[in-house]
Nonsense-mediated mRNA decay factor SMG8
Amino acid sequence: ILEEKCCGKLERIALPVFQPSTPDPAPASDQVQRLPSEGSGDAEKLKEPSTAQSHTPGDTSLSLALSLGQSTDSLGPYGDGDGAENQVQPKRPSLIDRQPSTVEYLPGMTHSACPKGLLPKFSSWSLLKLGSAKSYNCHTGLEQPSFLPGSSFLLPWDLVIRSRSEEDAGLMEPLDGGSSSWPAPNKSLVGKRGSAGGLGRGRRRDDMARVFVGFEYEDSRGRRFISSGPDKIVKALGPGGAKDPATRVLNTDMPLYVPSPSQGRGLKPHFAQLARLFIVVPDAPLEITLNPQVQPGPPPCPIFHPEQTEVVLPPDGFWVLRFPYSYATERGPCFPPKENQPLSNYKVLRGILRATTANPVPQ
């Protein structure tokens, strides 16, 4: 209902969700997940319709994911001991990655320990395009309500664009998709026609482009702010916008919860939660790949990610990724930190953005 009033007309990148092929789809059974090989004995318990045989021939009760034994996917590095089941996953075919089940849905959210080949009925993530790259003004910041004064500015991320006709490799820094895809922290980039500090949006003659990035936090009272580091709030006092580069927030694990800058008079601390990620992709031969991974609790808490793990943001766009408000597996929710729990266990893993040069269109 609210979407029709605010963002229903905006362009978006739709994330894959469960598409039923039967009128009465069912959630994946946790009991079958423990006994994936005994499909014939659990046929009556699941009460699946006969149309499931198109996905798993010979076993009409199990979805493709569970009948292949994918439900024994472990917690990965956060597993706590018994590794007998953890050996099943690498031996199974990757067919389920291309054919998600249409008769069973994932009762929780997608994460590193959920069965493969299952999708939730709806996505807890949202990726919208607010406009073109020029719709963000670096001198005024985000023109949205409830931001703390001077904290609505996105951080600049200067990237070198390598031209195919460029011969002087000493002045260029290639973007090959590897570890050198983004500039190292505290490394100044100098182009042929000036320093990185004087660049505008879009491609310049010096083959450099500027992306803008902003990790936005919001507390329970609606106060919003952009963070320039794990423990720092953006403070832009003048009209020039934020001065801190985005490399610090991109090259480190960002906290999922931070103490709210306005604690109030009560003894109970207030937390601000990571709510959105803003990305301004310039009109340049550049592709930004989005890969958010969130660990909302101490190990062995799994790592949550969107239903599509990597999303390419095309050039000339002002994008916003909305993070989930709460994180839940098929076994229940992951609760926010209490007063005596360290906030460092709740984090967004580094590497959320990756930059590569786009192949130029042949003339």
